[in-house]
Amino acid sequence: MNADAQRWKALFFISIAQLMVVLDSAVMNIALPSAQQALHFSDGSRQWVVTAYGLAFGALLLVGGRVGDMVGRKRVFLFALAGFAIVSAIGGLAVNAPMLLIARAFQGVFAALLAPAALSLISLSFTQPRERAKAFGVFSAVSVAGGAVGLIAGGLLTEYLSWRFSMFVLVPIAVIGILGAIPTVHDTTERHRARLDIPGVLLASFGLVAVVYGFSSAESDGWTGALTIASFAVGVLLLAVFIAVQARVTSPLLPLRVLTERNRAAAYLSVAFAALAMFGMFLLLSYYFQQVKGWSPVMAGLAFMPMAAAQVIGATQIGARLAHRIAPRPIMVGGYLVTAVGLVLLAVLDTGSGFPEIAVAETVVGLGIGAALMPAMSVATHGVAPQDAGVASALISSSQQVGGSIGTALLNTVATGSAAAYLVSHGGATVAESQVHGFSLAYWLATAVVLAAAAATAVMVNARSPKHAPATEDAPDLVAVH
Q1: Residues 152 and 225 in one domain
Q2: Where does the record place the Major facilitator superfamily (MFS) profile domain (predicted)?
């Protein structure tokens, strides 16, 4: 087999690994109501099934990239695929909520190792700009299509087999990836011997977990509860110490110079805000479709399609086209404002709302967020030094995952708490009406957060319009991460 055919085969198997990571997020959103019923965990703790994955993924992405550089990307890639298969099988066999949560957290750990290794291996295999763009285009298409496929697959598996197969289905995909990658994927022999910043890893990870746990505990203990306040205090303290440590160590996990440029800082902040709104919205919409509307898991998966399609159009036909012609700020601000309009349309839905109304709201959200995130990914590496390009790329994905983890915990807490209060204060209200009231308040909060993303972008982003279509190699990497 010639080297060219070998590289494209390698791309196929690397893309399979990416498909597995994307599927994992999507299928669980659909399967979660059934899993909650089967394993008997509370409304307050249900978001941890999503949050455990996103938090581990986001917190350890920077570590994953560094480990791949140190011990070899192919070795880490294969190890992560094997680990993902094992913990997915454990999750599918879960007999209680803690067992499922632990499996989901370890899926996030292995995804954090897998994603940077996959991107690096493609970069090493395709060095010519034209081929490189084509390879990352394939990889990005798998990422986008995988989300839509995952929603439908999650519905079919949950309805006709069991929610457990939403976890089991990842095992054969991982095995195919391993068997195909062993002969086709090749790595360089170069290794970076920089030491891993273990204190940084521990401080960042435990700090983020404490902050997210604070949002979650507010549902049961209240916002002024001792556990809630203690969690927030410990989390903020650990993250503050993390920043102080990063300024002093010789090989920091997160070089602070990456954060000091205003455009990059705005990109990380606005993407975290956007993810906060979007991840929480996905969780609540899944429950709205299945519990309030009474739709089957398959119907719930199909009901997400208007948003998935609109997001692809927003990214490829609006964001990408405009990004070559005008400065990123108006695209990002406009996209976030359109997203806020869509969230308002979701907030005014009630128990009797039909699919056309839901589809319109989803389409508006998808177009807005797709258009906004495309230039945000590019701004994330604005003016970055070559040696920091990998960190900047991982950090934008970390912003998404961590923001999404906080958003899932926060919006779920607001929704469940306000629904319970509404049921008590309105004696004749049905459970469905109280749920819709809780969802509505959560969507209004999500709207405010997206407006904050628009404001941060308007104030901080000042990157200029490109003179011509970007020729840098960072952009497709970032799109692929997204």
Answers
A1: no
A2: 10-465
